[in-house]
Design brief:
The chain has strands at about 10-15, 20, 25-30, 40-45, 45-50, 55, 65-70, 75-80, 80-85, 90-95. By secondary structure, the chain is an all-beta fold. The strands form 3 sheets. Strands 8-9-1-4-7-10 form a 6-stranded antiparallel β-sheet, with no helix packed on it. A two-stranded antiparallel sheet has the order 2-3.
Amino acid sequence: MKHILPLNDKILIQKAEGKERERSGIILTEQKDGQTNRGIIVAVGQGRMDKDGKLVSIDARLVKGTEVVFSWGDKVEIDGEEYFLVGSDSVLAIITQ
């Protein structure tokens, strides 16, 4: 597999399939355009620079392997697999067990 490292405050998320009911009873559905709104973080950028040139890190909980809900992203295909490249502000929630 090729490795991809998101730049700035971008996060690479592997697409999750379909509708699923979590143990808590929450149902995570597909968006209207058919793209799921949940997935697993594959890679995370360093963060972004603020207006003073200081690095603003991404939330420390957003790490590889974390399951998240996100609002949108740019679809990319790597080695035949679909992923979404999203800004950290597009990650809406972390799914925990």
